[in-house]
Amino acid sequence: MADSTVRHKVEAWIRERHLPKVFGKKFEKQRVQLQSGQVREIDAVSLDGAIHVEIATSAWRTASGNPGTGGQRKVKNDVRDLALVPTGQRVLCVTDPEMAEWAERQKLRKNFPPDLVVIAVALPKSLRVELDAAQRLASDEMR
Description:
Elements: H1 5-23, E1 27-33, E2 39-46, E3 51-56, H2 69-83, E4 89-94, H3 97-108, E5 117-120, H4 125-142
Helix pairs in contact: 1-4
């Protein structure tokens, strides 16, 4: 079973360090009631509730170089949840530049809401190395 410790560490760094620099606000993980009535945990919500952020750490490509449908599916689910948040700005933070490009293409094709903000986050080198190693390990487990 893949260890999600590194993914949680990356999400925490983005929530606690990166997002406050970008938006000038503090963020926390929060359970939010969606317009559908379901309650979902959103990766980062500004303390004033004005900004809702989902964080995707998946790579767009698999270890074999093919498009990663699992990562794309996770991003689509995150964006669906963001679209159902009743108020505020909706942001998708991704740690893989190719995934950011793919998300922008989805917006152009009208598969994602036009007001969705997509941010490609450049992780600190040490965190990037940890995430890449964890993704390689998870990929090896699948083989």
